[in-house]
């Protein structure tokens, strides 16, 4: 048994396949759209594709696609929100006091 790697018509990796079938000479029968060349593990690709002419895997994902996989930032917690509001109010209060005292705070 050997493992081969199936790719679709856009040459993107589909899945690994175990091959058991052999021909009359004892060679494994590798299905079409498959290669024995394993995609690299490190660095892993977001969307591995196989270059048939060069016999190597490459990254086919666009930067936009990669960015779309990143999780959205978490919303602020209630405590973080209160801290921001407090900092803004403190700044506004300091500015107001400065204007009332002629631009200087004592």
Could you please describe the fold and organization of this structure?
With 106 residues, this protein is an alpha+beta fold. Helix content is 28%, strand content 22%. It has helices at residues 63-69, 78-100; strands spanning 2-7, 13-19, 34-35, 48-51, 56-59. A hairpin with a 4-residue loop joins strand 4 and strand 5 (56-59). The mean pLDDT is 90.
Summarize the structure.
The chain is an alpha+beta fold.
Class based on secondary structure composition and strand pairing = alpha+beta
What does the average pLDDT come to? 90
Read across the widest sheet, the strand sequence of neighbours is: 2-1-3
What integer value in Å does the Rg equal? Answer: 30 Å
Shape category: rod-shaped
End-to-end span in angstroms? Answer: 83 Å
> What kind of oligomer do you see?
single chain
The largest β sheet comes out as: 3 strands, antiparallel
| SSE pattern, N- to C-terminal | EEEEEHH
* Number of self-contained structural domains: 2
Contiguous runs where pLDDT drops below 50 for at least 5 residues: none
Helix content: 25-40%
């Amino acid at each position: 048994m050997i493992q081969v790697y199936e790719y679709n018509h856009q040459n993107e990796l589909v899945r690994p396949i175990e091959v058991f079938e052999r021909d009359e000479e004892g060679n494994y029968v590798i299905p079409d759209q498959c290669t024995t060349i394993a995609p690299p593990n490190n660095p892993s690709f977001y969307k591995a594709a196989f270059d048939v002419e060069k016999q190597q895997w490459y990254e086919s994902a666009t930067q936009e696609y990669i960015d779309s996989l990143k999780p959205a930032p978490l919303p602020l917690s209630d405590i973080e929100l209160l801290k921001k509001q407090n900092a803004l109010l403190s700044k506004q209060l300091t500015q107001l006091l400065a204007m009332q005292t002629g631009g200087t705070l004592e």
